Amino acid sequence: MPDDILTFSAAFPEATEADWLREVEKALKGKGAETLTRKTAYGIGIKALYRESDFAGAGDPLGIPGVAPFLRGKTAAPDKWLPWDIRQAFAHPSPEQTNAEILRDLERGVSSIELRIDGTGANGVQLCTAEDFAVALRGVDASIAAVALDSGRGMGARTAGLLGQWAEGKGDAAKLKLDFNMDPLGALAKTGRIEGGLDAAFAKVGGLATALAKTFPAANLLRIDGALIHEAGGSEAQELGGLIASAIDTLRRIDGSLGVRAAANRIVFALALDANYGAGIAKLRAARRLWARCLDALGLEAAPMRLQAITSARMLTAYDPWTNMLRNTSAAFAGAVGGADILTVRAFNEALGLPEELGRRIARNTQIIAMEESQLGRVADATGGAWFTETLADDLAKAAWAEFQRIETEGGFAASLMAGAFQARIAAVRDARAKDVARRKIPLTGVSEYPLLEEIAAPVADVTAPKEKAVTDAGLKHFVKALPAPGAAAVAGALEPIRLAAPFEALRDAAARAVRPPAVFLATLGSLAEFTARADFARNLFAAGGIASKEPPVPPRTTAELAAAFKASGCKLAVLCSTDKMYETEATAAAAALKSAGAARVWLAGKHEGDGIDANIFAGADVVHLLKLAQAELGVSA
To answer: Cα separation of 165 and 160, whole Å?
Structure first.
């Protein structure tokens, strides 16, 4: 309701920015607001407050949506019924089962499908022949629902040829929505090896792309995958810089066949989004600015960047996987508001194994609710002009451009990969983030924070491992009559995917395998008010390693009662929990009593040190290291 009808704000005194800053300094005990600025993994500052002086958005400096250079998206009028493409990934090894899942999900709101292909069947569908494609895609109308590929190791051109074979004769070829998604440099980064070398690989891709472009004029031929950089632990700036570097190197290498102009118009760009939706929105906006600058530098006509956003796999947890629904929802919000053309939400139970019906249903319904109930796609470029978003997007674009230029000085994306330079920079960011995760500076709800030792398991598909099959090159030969002679293999260090929760999950797995469930005794000192805060802290910390906490049935009043309660618990390790003031007078005697009662080690919640104290737990400590130490003392094998 507007203020001129009912002035809600009239009851409050008018506040200025100076008033806010004064209150901030008071709360920070004399420190300025600049001390609230935090740094991203790539050193970009995130301030507590943004103003018009940070980004002068009042005059639409980036133009308007739908107008070249398309920095604010491809359209000012989003499709009322389908503002973005709801794309579901399918990975069951059986083509028959995959077909059943595809048809079911298309009936229930999915608008396009992506086939994750793996000849081994371990990580995708075994689509190895034209017959396999016919089975998996039986009943699919590609003029309505787009069909996209996510090909496995060294199969990009061969599976693209097989999809092309399937699509021939499926109606008007000009209307078929196909994303062949060939990406030789992405395959090199992901697998670390391209048999026959990059020259031969690009010759095959170029010849096939040229033939497919003529046959299927509406198809996208290439995909530049930045998400794999994110999944390997890279920062937002490294993901964007690598994305642009890979695109430029791809255009450079394919220029002699398909041509730069034709190739640039047939690219899908893939980026990962995690639960930090503010950074995710800014990342999508920064990507459009970077690509517009590249098109301008190449002398090509401005065109909308076709962006596919994929929710992050590295943020997913195997323990308490239900919390992944919240993570995926935040990432999906970023994709919708950030203007992704295609959005793929991973199943919440993907970290546990192959998702089944529940996982796929929640994934697609997350998007349907965002689209149809929250109506996130009804406003074009909803965050356009927001001071924080635009400033962060600018900062990300500048940092990414610097990374791109660095990769170019190293000889381009492929050369940097084969030299190991790009991987080394990613490893530095990944290792720094791992330390923050271990210290719980980056909290993981349900894993490092608020873990549930008695959690409800999530279902996954029951799959029998199939026999490995080789992918035929019949489809490739169908479109390319003369294949290039192979050369020496191109080799690089693979960008292996990680999951942030993996160190804590390894501890939980070890605890679950223990013959005797590990437990510690919380030796509380003083009154309930005195020990509760640190007892809760200790209980939460040890549960992150699968270690239960046992407590006295009633708060002990003396060290003798404390020792008796410890002996009755059957534990080997005790943790003192109280206030710093109580520790000064009681910790040494309590530790001695506990060791006399059989405690092998006595730890303390806090930083107090003294006789009999073997280790300390406190905020900011390396929790993974402490939990490994605790498990070793409790006889848990790694």
So the answer is: 9
Question: Given a cut of 90, is residue 2 above it in pLDDT?
Answer: no
Residue 1 has what pLDDT?
A: 46
Cα 419 off chain centre by = 26
Q: Catalogue the E-assigned strands of 353-497.
A: 490-491
User: What's at 302, amino acid-wise?
Assistant: A
Q: Please, which residues have CB within 8 angstroms of residue 312's CB and are 6 or more apart in sequence? A: 230, 231, 272, 273, 274, 275, 327, 331, 346
The token pair that represents 137 in the structure block? 């895609």
* Residue 150 clears pLDDT 80, i.e. is over it: yes
Residue 622: CB atoms within 10 A of its CB come to: 13
User: What type of residue sits at position 232?
Assistant: A
Give 499-523 as a 3 state SS string.
Answer: CCCHHHHHHHHHHHHCCCCCEEEEE
- Is residue 447 within 8 Å of residue 546, measured between CB atoms? no
Domains along the chain? 8-54 (no CATH), 86-448 (3.20.20.240), 503-633 (3.40.50.280)
Contacts of 385 (CB under 8 A, 6+ apart): 55, 57, 58, 60
- Amino acid letter at 104? R
- Do the strands 146-150 and 85-90 form a parallel or antiparallel pair, or are they unpaired? unpaired
Task: Count CB neighbours of 333 within 10 A.
Answer: 19
Describe the strand order of the beta sheet including 615-617 as a list of residue ranges.
Answer: 548-550, 519-524, 573-577, 601-605, 615-617
Q: How confident is the model at residue 257 (pLDDT cuts 50, 70, 90)?
A: confident
Percent of the chain scoring above 90 in pLDDT: 87
Tell whether omega for the bond before 443 is within 30 degrees of 0, i.e. cis.
Answer: no
Task: Spell out the residues 6+ positions from residue 354 whose beta carbon is closer than 8 angstroms to its own.
Answer: 91, 92, 460, 461, 463
**Per-residue pLDDT reduced to its tens digit, 467-502:** 999 999 999 999 998 889 999 999 999 999 999 999
How many CB atoms are closer than 10 A to CB 396? 28
**pLDDT digits 0-9 by tens, 328-379:** 999 999 999 999 999 999 999 999 999 999 999 999 999 999 999 999 999 9
575's enclosing H/E stretch is strand 573-577
pLDDT tens per residue across span 28-38: 888 888 888 98
Contact 376, 281 (CB under 8 A): no
Q: Identify the sign of the CA torsion 469, 470, 476, 477.
A: negative
Contact 198, 412 (CB under 8 A): no
Three-state secondary structure readout of 308-321: EEEECCCCCCCCCH
Lowest mean pLDDT among 291-305, 355-369, 457-471: 457-471
Checking if the pLDDT of 127 tops 90, the result is yes
Q: Does this model's pTM top 0.90?
A: yes
Locus of tokens 């632990």: 233
The residue type found at 314 is R
Question: What are the structure tokens assigned to 162, written together?
Answer: 């097989």
